[in-house]
Design a protein that fits this description.
Layout: H1 2-14, E1 31-39, E2 44-53, E3 58-63, E4 76-80, E5 85-90, E6 95-100, E7 115-123, E8 131-140, E9 146-153, E10 158-165, E11 170-178
Length: 214
């Protein structure tokens, strides 16, 4: 499975694109939904609920709460991409850590420098209601040590994203997405987290949403 998936995306990234290069990435709307993270070796790393505010570029992701899985990754993350900080929250113990964000790449927004690789139909393009038209956007990590490929609907809803790094390639899928923020309080720093200083980042550590799963 890993070899087949890696070969498929390698071909997608290296093949000659038929898409026009003047296309620019769309901007995703506010969203609430479920997200799963799976390695290309078939290991389910996390399943959880997310809330995303497009204008303020804020993301809350809480894994393995209402959707527990047999995985070691249990997260409650509140990320402020414009401010370059995020919080690792432990609501049970009323504690959290405030850390610096080193990379803004995440699966709910298309990077401004992404390239439109192609447009695909999933399912059938000739039978009404039996297919989905997707744009495939591709690009490289800012440190040039990895690549990504995002599948996005014509309405700019991210469906899935492949990330290929030197350590752990994985697939992120979004499900049951609604274009609204159901609970705005999820994007507010909890009272027990306010006023915290930034944690020092150990040398060689990269803090980002994606690195939580690497």
């Amino acid at each position: 499975m890993f070899a087949a998936a890696a070969l498929f995306v390698f071909m997608c990234l290296t093949a000659t694109s038929h898409a026009e290069h003047h296309h620019h990435p769309c901007h995703t709307p506010n969203m609430t939904g479920l997200m799963s993270v799976m390695s290309l070796k078939g290991e389910l790393k996390a399943v959880g609920a997310f809330t995303y505010e497009s204008m303020g570029k804020k993301l809350r992701f809480r894994s393995n709460e209402s959707h527990p899985v047999n995985t070691s990754v249990g997260l409650d993350l509140l990320m402020f991409f414009d401010e370059g900080v995020f919080y690792e929250i432990d609501s049970k113990n009323q504690s959290c850590e405030k850390k610096k964000l080193h990379c803004n790449l995440h699966p709910l927004d298309i990077p401004d420098d992404a390239k439109l690789h192609s447009t695909k139909h999933i399912g059938s393009s000739s039978i009404e209601g039996e297919g989905l038209k997707l744009n495939m956007w591709t690009g490289a990590f800012t440190d040039s040590k990895g690549y990504y490929s995002m599948s996005v609907t014509m309405g700019c809803l991210p469906v899935s994203s492949f990330y290929f790094s030197e350590t752990t390639p994985f697939l992120i899928s979004n499900m049951e997405v609604e274009m609204e923020i159901k609970d705005p309080d999820l994007l507010v720093v909890p009272s027990f987290c306010q006023g915290l200083p930034l944690e020092e980042t150990p040398e060689g550590t990269v803090n980002s949403f994606l690195h939580e799963f690497m």
